[in-house]
Amino acid sequence: MKDLKEFIINKSKELGIDVIGFTDGEPLLDIKEYLKYRIDNNINTEFEEKDIEKRINPKITFPGCKSIIVIAMSYNIDFKRHNPNILKGSLSKSSWGADYHKVLKERIEKLIDEIKMATDFEYKYFVDTGPLVDRELAKKAGIGYYGKNCSIINKEYGSFIFIGYIMTDLDINFEKAQVENDCGDCNLCIKACPIGALESKYGLNPKKCISYLTQTKEIIPDGYLDKMGIKIYGCDTCQLVCPKNKDIKKSNHEEFLPKDTHGIVDIKELLSMSNKQFRDKYGSMAGSWRGKNILKRNAIIALGNMKDKKNIDLLLEEKKKGIEMLRPYIDWALNKITKVD
């Protein structure tokens, strides 16, 4: 095909993909030292590939890789949240609607099918599940630039975007993308981070990030618990204060509307749910992958941070269930509440 790149761009628009970019299959050398720094300082997480070479070299995962197609979809969707009279915990926008892994996977598979009709090719694709650093791929492909909060910021859609990519053996003609950083002197995200996870400009300590803390099975340090507020899964703080997320294009992808959860968690209901009830209500959202007990732990932390003595009986009832991993958080929450004057 004469202009495969334009064909792919046009098909991506037809499929409702918001942003698309292209890059080569060469190693992501710009990020190598940062990844090494994280390992050396024990701030890499259990969710990351441990082998740095696998994280930066596409050809280890896909030896025939010549080009990488990177896509992004906005989840910055407008939704008027109602406020029912319940004990509410919050969900980040990334887990409002349908699991983004499935949504982007479906779009990528449709795009692959379209490309296959034009030319035969080999490929591998990932949505937040591959070893490569997808944000670095997005930067290299011109999707956006790194904000000081280490999120990729797109000029049209801001930073509330999901990223996926297709590694291919295609020869695609494209110019190397250069997206200029536009943060300037702004440091609102750094100042707003509740635990100070943004330790420097473009320097995130992921083990202090509330989004990470709501997902990890590791023990959460006591000093972080009262900074987690009522967050049950994820944290949008640094993105919500970012000026680059103001006056931008909003998402029109209805899949990301919080139809089941309304963007909140009924804490009392969550604590009493069976596994089946949990799967029925929350199984379709991205945050459900961590399972009921991790979200229950976060709900218990939220109750402690509410400091309302009316919730003591709820915590004592949960303690009777004897779930060992929850016990220290229940004790912390009870102590936090009873210390209130």
CATH architecture of the largest domain: 3-Layer(aba) Sandwich
| Total beta strands | 11
What quaternary form is this? Answer: single chain
Strand content: 5-15%
Q: How many alpha or pi helices?
A: 15
| Helix share bin | 25-40%
- Under the CATH scheme, which class of the largest domain? Alpha Beta
**Average pLDDT figure:** 95
Main sheet properties = 4 strands, antiparallel
List keywords for this structure.
341 residues, alpha+beta, four-stranded antiparallel β-sheet, 36% helix
Q: Quick gist of this model?
A:
With 341 residues, the protein is α+β, with helices and mostly antiparallel strands. The chain contains 15 helices and eleven strands.
Describe the structure in your own words:
The chain has helices spanning 4-14, 32-40, 52-56, 58-61, 100-118, 134-140, 188-192, 210-213, 222-225, 237-240, 267-272, 275-282, 292-306, 312-320, 327-338; strands spanning 19-24, 67-74, 88-91, 123-126, 145-146, 152-153, 161-168, 198-200, 203-204, 231-233, 264-266. A hairpin with a 2-residue loop joins strand 8 and strand 9. The protein contains 15 helices and eleven strands. The chain folds into two domains: 4-80 and 97-168, NADH Oxidase; 195-338, no CATH class. Helix 1 (4-14) crosses helix 5 and helix 14 runs antiparallel to helix 15. The chain is an alpha+beta fold and 341 residues long. The N and C termini lie far apart (74 Å). It has a four-stranded antiparallel sheet with strand order 1-2-7-4, with helices on both faces. It has a three-stranded mixed sheet with strand order 10-3-11. The mean pLDDT is 95. The radius of gyration is 21 Å and the shape is globular.
